[in-house]
Amino acid sequence: MAKERVALWDNVKFFLMITVVVCHLVALDTEGSHLFRCVFMFITAFHMPLFIFISGLFHKNKNIKEKVISYFAVYMAVKIGYLLVRMATHKKIVFELFTEDALPWFMFATAVFILITYLLRDIDKKYILMIALMLGLFSGYDKNTGDFLVMSRIIVYYPFYLLGTMVNKERIEALAQKRYIKAVSGAVLLAWGAICFFLTDKIYILRPLLTGRNSFGKDIVDYGLFYRAGVYVLAAVIGLCFILVTPSFKLGKITDFGQRTLQVYFWHNLIIKFIFYSGGYEFFEKTGYLKLAWALLGIPLTFILSLSIFKFPLNYLMYNPKKKTKSE
Hints:
Elements: H1 7-26, H2 34-44, H3 47-57, H4 64-88, H5 105-119, H6 125-138, H7 151-166, H8 169-175, H9 179-198, H10 200-203, H11 207-210, H12 224-245, H13 253-257, H14 261-277, H15 281-284, H16 288-296, H17 298-305, H18 314-317, H19 321-327
Helix pairs in contact: 1-2, 1-3, 1-14, 1-17, 2-9, 3-7, 4-5, 4-14, 5-7, 6-7, 9-12
């Protein structure tokens, strides 16, 4: 008998997907908008580490070959999608097969995370985590780690995936039931939001670190190790608080849509880039209210792209053990 899905995790994934879509909307103009810089800093502090942590939380050492191939297939499909968008909007053609600084990196990195975790399955995870953390902390001193083979992000973010495989889901689910825990977590998120709004210029130095893809810049290189450690702690604390404030009961379509975040991932930035490259953002950049409207487009866009019609082409690219069982 199949284990019943826990609504908390589907709810978390859906709301987290909204932050991903909003982040890609505001990232297009952070230099021209204080609001966008605030939102960008608030979200990037935790959203990708948390998504990676949740991926690790549900890691299983089964069907590894199929999973890895599926993620690489989606990686290539998104890259090709970007290429087609640039062609359709008459932008300069840019295509590097194994160098990636944009959205497809997540699929490439996840495939590597799955494979590494499987290959190291017989080693005590506490030792692997210590080594992974040391690599992540010191990798910023090496200028050669970057976007080729998504190397920097793989090194920086693997500790979150591995930690996910080590954490007891039921403990987090139990904490999410407690009202006072939710209240404290909400207060922490509000405090981080206030810092992002009122101290934007002071914390903006962290931006290169929050993306996981940059070596330590000259402004922080002397203390890069400690900055990275601080960013790790920040991601862990804010990410945990995000989970704990999320309702743990079924939220109707929101919970259902939380099972379809991968299709939102696939389509949303292709649509955003097409609008942006076509000049659609020029209307929104005129006033602060219109910029806010641009950022808030992330909410309806996430809902729309969660509809069944947008399962294509992932329903063909992603390995689904249920389909295999039915066919057999």
